[in-house]
Design a protein that fits this description.
With 106 residues, the protein is of the alpha+beta class.
Amino acid sequence: ESNFAAFRFYAGKLREAGYTVWNPAENEDSEMSYEECMRLDLDAVVNKCKSVVLLPGEAWKNSVGASAEVTAAHVCGKGVFQMVDTENGGVSLKRIEKKKVTPYLD
């Protein structure tokens, strides 16, 4: 389910903390192609969101989609944060600093 359960869980945590959340798991249709989902996600990153928040852990680094979202956020001057679970059951946000973005060379 493409981490949708985790997206929903952590979107709820962010909302509880007072954030407004645009969540791909709530805005995509199972009938949509991967390409359609990515166009919707990247449009949100570029035109609607102030920041991108990643799920806890390092799995996002192996995701082409998450990497594209992070890169788009960085080149558009938006914040990128990693969610970190706290001991009291909440979450905190850790800033992911912009790394050098290099062009795609085949």
